[in-house]
Amino acid sequence: MPKQLFTDPQVGYGTMSNETIEDLDMLQSSRPGYGTRSVLEVSLNIVNATVGSGIIGLPFALMIAGFSTGIIISIFVSILTFFAVYSLILTSQKSQIFNFSAIAEVAMGRFGFHILNLMLFIQSAGSVISYFILVADTIPILLGLYFPQYPLLADRQLVTILVAVFIIFPLNLFRSIGALARWSAFSVLLLPVMIITVLVRAPAYSREHEAPMIQVGKDPIAAMGIMSFAFVCSQVAHSNYLSQKNQSLSSWKMTSFVSTLLSWSISISFAAIGYLSFGKDVSSNIFSNFPVDDNVINVGRLALGVSMVLTVPMAFYPARDSIQKTIGFETADRQPTPMQHYSVTVILFTIFLIFGVQIRSLGKVYSVVGGIASSFLAYIIPGFAYVAVFHPNWLSFLNKRYQIIAQTQFEPLTGLPINKVSAKPTWWLDIASIVLIIFGIIVMSFTAYGALV
């Protein structure tokens, strides 16, 4: 049935009508003026994309940063996240480019496009490996506890491999992630169960552990990487912005603020309770701090294990897409053949599974992936894109292409609005963009150095 859609006049994106739901969905995913969601709905979508398995490692991040230092770092990272998400859309409104990869290409040329694909691959690969580690840390423990007559069910590697091959692998064979929408929704519903069980039971163990409040931890830089991994959401900014009905900058600023505040509040509450309960003994996977016979926590372990089984494809698909684009199997005018598609799927899945079974340090995965890939995606690309579009003369000494950008008059998308959106730089975003770039480079550099030594 035709669907009438009226766009907010203050946005300047005209009135669209008589689009089918399918057409509307396709248009909403690629260009402005077709959004249907409220500020609150979009904010909650961003929170859902942000508050994922990374929250499990935040108590550990507070421990290695020091509690008070960690809280300050988390506030700083959240503020930078707000600036990044807001400035990214401001840059898109000015350039009329509403695609993360294309924005990266504007900022850094073809090098930016390829390095973005690499970082998206590292981010996705790290997520898949962390999910396998969490599966290995939960399901074998539960099976061994409740089915002691079958000792093989407690074997960490064997159970993880069986679950991966017979349950997780088939979910990764589809070409489109849309086929997993229902499973994804079910997985999201398990997240509150997991968090609530920890919040309910963790305080009961606080007397057994020392939790210093004012002390600088042993590795604040690694904590920054873990927090970057937990808070990164720049890669979903465009899709959420395009789904928002009121696409004015003031409305998006409110969305950015609400989503960042909610994500920080939920994440830091979980992190603080976890740290204050287990203190200096807190593990990178907080569930490892609880005894295996705590039945309430085992409900959370089950929720976490099942959620990770269903979440692996959410990270695997982007990693596979990055590889297929890089090696030329997928281009603008062709899709991978069945042989290419299944070959890449099998090879990648096998590699990720091997790492997931062999690696046990969840904190190491979070800090390295967060420090390298998440920092690039969350800070460097948004900051560099803002400077490249609004102040290309600042970069003209690097490349003549920025002199060309400086002379470019960006126009609205063809066939869309008559009225232009007023996207102008501000002094506070100028400062924020520089801070984003510098902070991202520092975290990336120290993390890379730490990983090598």
UniProtKB/TrEMBL annotation:
Protein name: Amino acid transporter transmembrane domain-containing protein
Residue intervals of the Amino acid transporter transmembrane domain: 36-401
Keyword hit for Transmembrane helix: yes
Main location group: membrane
GO cellular component: membrane
PANTHER family assigned: AMINO ACID TRANSPORTER (PTHR22950), SODIUM-COUPLED NEUTRAL AMINO ACID TRANSPORTER 11-RELATED (PTHR22950:SF458)
GO terms for MF: L-amino acid transmembrane transporter activity
Alphabetical keyword list: Amino-acid transport, Membrane, Transmembrane, Transmembrane helix, Transport
Location of the protein in the cell: Membrane
Origin superkingdom: Eukaryota
Pfam families xref list: Aa_trans
UniProt similarity note: Belongs to the amino acid/polyamine transporter 2 family.
Protein topology in the membrane: Multi-pass membrane protein
TM regions (residue ranges): 46-65, 71-90, 158-174, 180-200, 221-237, 257-278, 299-319, 339-359, 366-389, 427-452
